[in-house]
Each structure stands twice: as structure tokens, then as C-alpha cells.
Amino acid sequence: MPSIEQSDVFRPMATFPKSIWRDQFPSIDDSVFDSLTKEIDPLKEKVKDMLMASTADPIDNVKFIDTLLRLGVSYHFEDHIEKQLETIFYSQQNLVTGKDLDLNSTSIVFRVFRLHGFKMSCGVFDKFTDNDGKFKKTLIDDASGMLSLYEAAYLRVGGESILEEALAFTKANLKSLALKSSPRLAKQIMNALDQPLHKCPPRLVARNYISIYDEEESRNEALLKFAKLDFNRVQVLHKQEISHVARFWKDYNFSSELSYARERYVEVYTWMNTLYFEPRYTQWRILLTKTMTLMSIIDDTFDAYGTPQELQCFINALKRWEIGALDELQDYTKVICKALLDVFDEIDEQARKEGTSYGVPNAKDAFFGLASNYHAEAKWCHVGHVPTFDEYISVAMKTSTFDPILTIAFLGMGTVAGLEAFEWLLSEPKIMTATNIIGRIMDDIVSHEFEQLREHCPSSVECYMKEQNLSEKDALLDLQKKLEDAWKVINEECFRPTAIPRDLLLPPLNLARASYLFYKHGDGYTNPDPYVKDEISALFIDPIPI
Length: 546
Prior knowledge:
mainly alpha; 24 helices; disordered N terminus
């Protein structure tokens, strides 16, 4: 260990669990991915023909698009889906209200259009309510309809009382409905109550739904085979990417050089895979995972290891952002800074290849901003300062890591992310604030008790309790309300017309989904077993049986 580690140096170290993924991602030959790509090509054409045939009836068309979305293969047909939904939405204004559609069909159509940014009126559900605005009791026996209404309600925005009522109504009845439903439907209901579709990472939606679709009597065998093969094909690529990042961890010898830090590159990769999973982003997923892995190490350095003097020297070196700054650093911070400079050299090189190097300075600035905010939190801890809730959130939102992550993610999305997109990020748009709030507050709710066992800055929970003079229970209820309000803001900001191309709004939404996955039951990042081990295994270790 570095010579700085002396007995009279106090370090508020945490005892983090070891990685549960060591040596589980060996390198895979590229030919496996190429072979599976050739195998799916004819099936892809068949599914494309099915999609085009479904346009004969607009409701069937939207339902088929929903099936493609949930099976995880819609990315193959993005342009066709976009044109079809646009045509239906703008040419058939009374698509739902003008037809005698049941609750299930109405809910699916509503959810699909809202998911794609079309603001379909929540008034389509009026016909299912009584005069007092409550949903009709007769709907309770319609398990499929209730489940679809529940999923649709998560696309709500502020002021939509009918969707608030829909969510309360379905939540109150779905669990008992599951007990009376078929095993397949009961499984869907319980999965949805644990992780609603809108809050679930797209690849996990696909992994879960493929097994459900496999049991449907009306399934299309060609579509099912396509979905299974494509999932396994892309999983092979994802395994290769994790293997690459595992080598990065070993090459820098982080486990021994920085033994105080969490070894969580597989969990980090899961976040970045949720950001965008498609094969075309393979290089950027690797670069993003390396970057966020370093963010995680720096986070642990600032709140579980570094002394005030070491942290100040590290910040000074980052300001210079050059190799000569390494000479000023202690041994362990030099390792971090060297790795960071190397990774940003890779980012710069890849951005130059793709013609997006104009955004690299923004990425560096965003990363330095993150480190500066880590430093601000560390200073609070060192002097025992308990900030107001607003003061805390203004800093802690930034330590969710999402600002630099999204800036780098934009670099990987080609020229659709022009200079104006990076300027938009700097303007602190509402969707970014909402995503940051979700990441920060969800993390704080599940981790604050563990963090307070050592010297650590207060979390949003402690700040809110003190400021509002509330019990922990009441504070958590208020914070949960803030989380739901943030989801509504995200939904609102994704409606057309959007301030920037819609493709650029999907990464912030997906980061919120990753936050929900990792923090819905506990701190799944620090303690993946038991919170997210099964999901990560399903995504990246276990292929789907064909």
C-alpha cells in the first residue's frame, strides 16, 4: 500500500462487499456474434413483413409494435415504427374514442403512443369511469385490462387526476387478481408490481417478456425465434464488452492499488447498457463503463478514504488535466488520475473518428464538475456541516454522475447530437434535473443508514428530516412523492415537439430506469447480491434456451 497510509491518518473507510463477478466474463470470439447475425437476417425480413401487414388495421398495428417493443427487437425497425405511429396518430384523431375498444386495447394504444412522445389525451379512459370519476368496479374482474391500465398510468404527467386514480385503483386490486389468474398472467402481474414497464430497463423488459410470450397460445413462432436469437446474439456482444472492461480493471491493478474502492465494473456496465444497448454503440458502452468505473472509485476516494489535503491535491491536478500534474500526487491518487487521462484520450480519439470531437471539452468540464461536487460534500463532512435540503440537492444532484455520463453518451450518438445538444445539456433542462433527482434521492433512501455508520456527509434524508422536523418515516413519504413528481417531469419533457431530437431524450429516461432497478429494494450497486444479481445474470450470463 502507499506510504501515505500511516497509523495517525484517519480514514473513514467503509467495508464494501467483494465483487461477485470475478472471472465470469472470459473473452469470446467475434465469430459467434457474426454467426448469429447471419442466422437472424432471414427471420428479420419475415418480421418486417409482419409489421407491414399489420398496418391494415391501426389497432392491430399499434399492438404489434407493442409486441416488438416488449420482445426487445423494435430497434431493428425504428424508422418504420416511427412513420406508422405518426401516420396513425395524426390521421385518426378518434382512433380510441371512436371505437368500442376494451380497457386492455385502450391502455396499450395509450401507452405506446405516449412512450413515443405523442400526447394522447388521458380522456380516452373517461368511458371506464362512473359519474364520480372513479373507475367502474366491474373492471376489477378484467385482469389483463387492469394490468394494462396499471402500466399505462406510469406515463402520466402532472395534473392528470384520472391516471392518478387509475394507478391507485389498479394497485389496490392487482395482487388479489394475480391469485385468481393463470400462472402466466399471475407472473406478469407480480413482475409489473415490482418493476413497471416504464421504469424497467429495455433489455430486462425483453428478457422477461420473451419467456411470457413463449407461453402464449397465439404466439408467432418465427417472431419468437427471432426475439430469442437476437437477444442471445446481442448478449454475446455485451459479454465481450464486459470482458474488455474487466481487462481494464486488471491492467490498472485497481484491486490492490485502490483496495478501499468498490469493484463494481459489471454493475457499472449494467447502468451503461441500460443507457443504450444497441450493437452500434459498442465502443461507447465500453468507454462509458470505464469512465463511470473511475467515477465510482473517485466517489469512494472522497467519502471513504482520502484526507482533506490529498483530496485538494487531486482536485488541483484535475484542474490542470495534463500528464505533468501526476508529479504532484500521492501514489494512490496518481493511479486514478493516470487512468482518467488515458480513458479521456480514448474518448477523444473515438470522437474524432466519428466527427463529434466538438463535444469532448464539455465532457471534461462535466467530469471536473462532478469531482468538484464530490469535494464540496467531503468538506461538509470534514466540518460537520448539515446543509438545508435545497443546498444539499444543488450539490448532490450533480454527484449522481449523470451529467458527465450523458455528455459522453451524446458523443457516441453521432451528429444527431450537434453543438446545440451540448449547449442544451449545459442549460440544466428539466428532464436532466428530474433524472438527477431520481438518481440521488433513490440512492440516499437505501444507503443513508449504512453511510451514517461512519464519518459521512448527511444525505437528503437527514437534511430533509432536520429542515422539516419530521420523523424518518414521514420524510421518506415526502421524498417518494418528489420521486413520482420527477417521473412526471420526464414524461412531460418527452412529448413532441421536443427541444432536441427525441433520440437524445432516451438516455436520461434510461438512467432513471437504471436507478429504479438498482435502488428499488436496497443499494443494489454496493450490495448486488441479493438486489440485482438475478437480473444481471439474466441479462449478461444466461442465454435464452432456443
